[in-house]
Amino acid sequence: MATAAMFLLALFALVMPARAQEQAGAVAIGFAPPLATSYLYRIEQKRVIEGRESRFVTERLLRFDKAPDGYWLSVTLRRVDTDAPPAGAEPFRAALLPLVGIQHRFLLDANGQVKSLEDDAAIAARAADALRQMLADFPQGGPRHRAASNILALLSGLSAEGRLALLSGEVRPLFLFANNIVLGGEGRGLKSMAGSPLGRPVPVEGRVLLNAGQGDMLSLTEQLVGEGATVHVDYRVDRPSGLVMEQARTLSYRGLRMTETRLLTPAP
Predict the structure, then answer these.
(1) Residues 6 or more apart from 140 whose CB is under 8 A from it?
(2) CA 228 to chain CA centroid, nearest Å
């Protein structure tokens, strides 16, 4: 159960910078995502499975539309791919394949906080039906059957709040700096939890630093350390929209290493 759950939950605890007052050296970031524009959101993760580096890729189509007090974000998972051996591939596929092609319509407030998911119960029911079909198709006792069974049990046991947290986990990093202030110089101190398939979640702390800006694009770096864990993240943030257009993250935990890149680009 634990292995399968990790692929559905955010692989790292989100580091949400504390809201700050304007001060010397501060740069304000807005939140005004372009409307009626389609984006491709690609996430690629690399980590060692059974002695070799394995790749995990997802691609989603995104679109923002105006809501009365914020924005609607439409998200559709369209691609899931991995070259990992069964120990890593089967939980990954079982967690995500049932969601391919299903549009998720999230309501965001004016600060980029995810408030709700339209028709969340119906989406969960469709995913559960797809998992039950997997169970019928896969041999009992095999890795695919075990992975689908674990994911179905996890999904069935979630509250509405739990489903929202789970299903929005991969898009929340886009809004880490929305309607926020970032600081030059020594930056701002942060405390969070780092969790991943590499090991148990551990508390980490460090700083987020404003490196430079080129036009409306800001470059930021986050460095956090904790018990046996180090996290380094480079961000490119579009200042007017508040969107994280690019994120490159490296996590090391007790000799193990995982890298992850997230890229938001206009859809072709």
Answers:
(1) none
(2) 23
Mean pLDDT by 10 residues, the chain (268 residues): 40 38 69 95 95 96 96 97 93 92 97 96 92 90 88 90 92 95 77 75 90 83 92 95 97 91 95
Q: How many domains does the chain have?
A: 1
Q: What does the pLDDT read at residue 144? A: 85
**Whole-number pLDDT of residue 13:** 37
How far apart (Å, rounded) are the C-alpha atoms in residues 101 and 122? 14
Domain coverage including residue 91: 2-266
Report yes or no: 217 and 236 within 8 Å, Cβ to Cβ: yes
Sign of CA dihedral 89, 95, 100, 106: negative
Which letter, b or e, does each residue of 29-59 get, where b requires 16 or more Cβ atoms within 10 Å of its Cβ?
A: bbbebeeeeebbbebebbbebeeeebebbbb
